[in-house]
Amino acid sequence: MNVNKIMYRPIGILVGVLGGVLATSAFDKLWGAVGPGDEAPDATDKQATWGQVLLAATIQGAIFGVVRAAVDRAGATGYRKVTGEWPDD
Length: 89
What we know:
Blueprint: H1 3-34, H2 50-83
Helix pairs in contact: 1-2
C-alpha cells in the first residue's frame, strides 16, 4: 500500500466526520426553511406523505454528496500543500 494513502487515512476519516457534521447542519437548516415541519420525515413516518419523504431524501442526498465531495477535495488539496504529494500518488 502506498505510504501517502496510509498517512492520509486518519486525515481523511477526520475530514469525513467533519463533513458529515456540516452536511447534517446544512440539511437541518434548509429543511427547516423549506420543509413542512421542523424535522425531516423518516421513510416510515406514517404522518408524512410520499412527496415529503422523497423530497427530504432528495435534498439530503444532494447536500451530503456535495459536502462530501467538497471536504474530500479540500482535505486532499490541503494534504498536498503540506506534504507536496497527492494522497493517492
